[in-house]
């Protein structure tokens, strides 16, 4: 299994995370903010579904992209933990207001 690719969508200062993984068979899965793991027939199909839902890849963002969404890249940290159960409560985060 490849490394996780983190995607995010925003509503104001609320960040909604999704994790995309490509499996050895070439299929993909997305772990969503509701704690569901959604299967896809390919990485391209999974990426298209995320983009249709207005998610963007974290690794493709720069500081200007983040600023356009109302935050800085330094504020973004994908969920961390051992297993999906540990990640689930972190998949939606409200960022604090900047000082």
Feature tags:
alpha+beta; globular
Walk me through this protein's architecture.
Residues 77-87 have a biased composition (Basic and acidic residues). Residues 75-99 are annotated as: Disordered. The protein has helices at 43-52, 63-68, 84-87, and strands spanning 5-11, 14-22, 28-31, 37-40, 56-57, 92-94. Strands 1, 2, 3, 4, 5 and 6 form a six-stranded antiparallel sheet that branches. The relative contact order is 0.23. A hairpin with a 2-residue loop joins β1 and β2. By secondary structure, it is α+β, with helices and mostly antiparallel strands. The chain has a domain at 5-72. The longest helix has 10 residues, at 43-52. The mean pLDDT is 93. The N and C termini lie far apart (41 Å).
Helices, strands, pairings?
Layout (H helix, E strand, L loop, with lengths): L4 E7 L2 E9 L5 E4 L5 E4 L2 H10 L3 E2 L5 H6 L15 H4 L4 E3 L5
Antiparallel strand pairs: 1-2, 1-5, 2-3, 2-6, 3-4
Q: Order of SSEs, N→C?
A: EEEEHEHHE
Total beta strand runs: 6
Low-confidence stretches: none
What do the pLDDT scores average to? 93
TL;DR?
Helices cover 20% and strands 29% of the residues. By secondary structure, the chain is of the alpha+beta class. Strands 1, 2, 3, 4, 5 and 6 form a six-stranded antiparallel sheet that branches.
């Amino acid at each position: 299994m490849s490394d996780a690719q983190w995607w995010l969508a925003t509503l104001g200062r609320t960040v909604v995370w999704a994790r995309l993984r490509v499996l050895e068979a070439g299929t993909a899965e997305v772990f969503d903010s509701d704690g569901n793991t959604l299967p896809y027939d390919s990485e391209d199909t999974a990426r298209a579904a995320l983009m249709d839902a207005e998610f963007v890849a974290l690794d493709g963002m720069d500081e200007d992209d983040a600023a356009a969404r109302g935050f800085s890249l330094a504020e973004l940290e994908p969920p961390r933990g051992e297993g999906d159960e540990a990640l689930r409560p972190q998949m939606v985060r409200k960022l604090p207001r900047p000082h």
